[in-house]
Design goal:
This protein is an alpha+beta fold. It has 9 helices and 4 strands, in the order αααααααβαβββα. A 4-stranded mixed β-sheet has the order 2-1-3-4, with helices on both faces.
Length: 229
């Protein structure tokens, strides 16, 4: 089964003004600026994190800092992988302005000197000011999608109940690359683990999903039994 999951969303652009307020421009300003071909995100994303990721992409493109922004967000993505409690902290409703400021400073420390032009620093301040630090992990993921699309890459997400061997992933990549699903694009393999699928695989490439999981088979069997009885 395949399904289209990418929806057109509002593309937000930076507006003139103080650096830490570049993402506060009104919707009309964002939409007008999005018409500029060189700064428009290569694909439309959905969700609040997708909207913010698109805004960050445009702001970085306008300041020729896409590469440094991508590296900075990659560094932050690694922090999320190492610290399972970080999402809980960022989503805490009791965070004070002082707490948020300290969090932003700590996140900056992990980025090091990669954030040229302080594009990501300003973005983090905007998230903090708008109580949106909780979507940062999603923004990191969505920005990776945008950069991959800009480079002509396509994500091949393979979800399994347990960690897959690299040889298995390479065989899957080769098989999909030879199929019509790849659309002739370079594939970027993303391996995920979800014990809930119980076994088998869920393969996502582009806007297509191939669900070969045990949980899906059980769900189909249960539906068949329910419809029969």
């Amino acid at each position: 089964m395949s399904s289209g999951r990418v929806r057109r969303t509002l593309v937000q652009l930076a507006a003139p003004g103080p650096a830490h307020r570049v993402f506060r421009a009104n919707v009309r300003g964002y939409a007008q600026a999005a018409a500029v071909q060189d700064t428009k995100p290569p694909v439309a994303l959905f969700g609040l994190d997708g909207t913010y990721a698109s805004a960050l992409y445009t702001a970085a493109a306008k300041t020729s800092s896409l590469d440094s922004t991508s590296k900075s967000l990659a560094a932050l993505a690694e922090v999320f992988k190492r610290d399972a409690k970080l999402p809980l902290i960022l989503n805490a409703p009791t965070l004070s302005p002082s707490d948020k400021s300290q969090i932003v400073q700590e996140l900056q420390r992990h980025m090091g000197a990669q954030d040229k032009g302080e594009t990501v620093k300003n973005f983090l301040k905007t998230l903090a000011d708008n109580n949106r630090l909780g979507i940062l992990q999603g923004v990191c993921d969505k920005f990776t999608t945008l950069m991959g699309a800009a480079r002509g890459e396509m994500d091949l997400t393979v979800t399994s109940a347990a960690k897959l061997d690299n040889k298995v992933l390479q065989r899957l990549e080769a098989a999909v690359a030879r199929s019509e699903y790849s659309q002739g694009k370079k594939l970027k393999v993303v391996s995920k683990i979800n014990p809930d699928i119980m076994g088998g695989l869920v393969v996502e490439v582009g806007d297509r999903t191939i669900d070969l999981s045990v949980s899906a088979k059980i769900a189909k069997m249960n539906k068949l039994l329910t419809d029969t009885l």
